[in-house]
Write a structure and sequence with these properties.
178 residues; mainly alpha; Arc Repressor Mutant, subunit A; 3 strands
C-alpha cells in the first residue's frame, strides 16, 4: 500500500471510531471522512469500493449525512451517476454539526426541563425544592450554552476562529498560562 493511501485509510478508520464515541454510526462517519479528504466528488460506487462496504450501507449513510446537511448530492456533466461531496471548510462543518446536534439533542432537553419545572411549580410538596434547584441549574447551564451558540452561529469562519483564539487568550490571562 502506498504511503498516502495508508494515511487516508488510518484517518478514515479513526474518524469512524470517533464517530461511535460521538454517538454517530461508524460507517456514516467513515463515509463523511472519505468525502472530506477526497478532492473530487465521489459516486456511491466509489464510496462502496473505497470503504469496502455494501451498497445499502453507503446509501443509508449518504441519506443520513444529507439529512444532517453535511453532504450534498451533485451532478457532473456527462455523467449519469450522482456524486457526493461534503463541506470542506472545517469551521462550516463544525457549525453544521453543532446546529444539528442542538436541534436533535439540546432543544428537546430545554423543552423537557421547562415542562418539568412548570409541573413542579404546580405541586405543593415539601421535597420539591432540591429537585427544582437541580433542574433549574441544569436549565441555566444548557441555556447559557444555547445563548453562546446563538451568538456565534452566524459568524463567518474567520471571525469564529478569531473569537476562539481571543477566548483562549482571555482564559489564559484569567486562569494563568499553561
Amino acid at each position: 500500500m502506498e504511503p498516502i493511501q495508508a494515511i487516508k485509510e488510518k484517518f478514515i478508520l479513526h474518524w469512524g471510531e470517533m464517530g461511535t464515541r460521538w454517538g454517530i454510526n461508524r460507517t456514516m462517519a467513515q463515509v463523511q471522512a472519505l468525502l472530506f479528504i477526497s478532492e473530487q466528488p465521489l459516486s456511491a460506487d466509489e464510496v462502496m469500493n473505497e470503504l469496502q462496504i455494501s451498497r445499502g450501507n453507503v446509501s443509508m449513510s449518504l441519506r443520513e449525512l444529507i439529512n444532517w446537511g453535511i453532504v450534498s448530492k451533485m451532478h457532473i456533466k456527462g455523467e449519469r451517476k450522482e456524486f457526493y461531496t461534503t463541506e470542506k471548510d472545517v469551521w462550516e462543518l463544525f457549525k453544521i454539526i453543532l446546529r444539528e446536534r442542538k436541534k436533535r439533542e439540546i432543544d428537546p432537553t430545554v423543552d423537557v426541563l421547562h415542562d418539568l419545572l412548570q409541573r413542579l411549580e404546580e405541586i405543593d410538596h415539601a421535597d420539591k425544592a432540591y429537585l427544582q434547584a437541580q433542574l433549574m441549574s441544569l436549565l441555566e447551564f444548557v441555556e447559557t450554552g444555547t445563548s453562546l451558540y446563538d451568538y456565534t452561529s452566524d459568524l463567518n469562519p474567520i471571525n469564529l476562529m478569531r473569537l476562539s483564539k481571543e477566548t483562549i487568550q482571555l482564559a489564559q490571562k484569567v486562569i494563568g498560562q499553561r
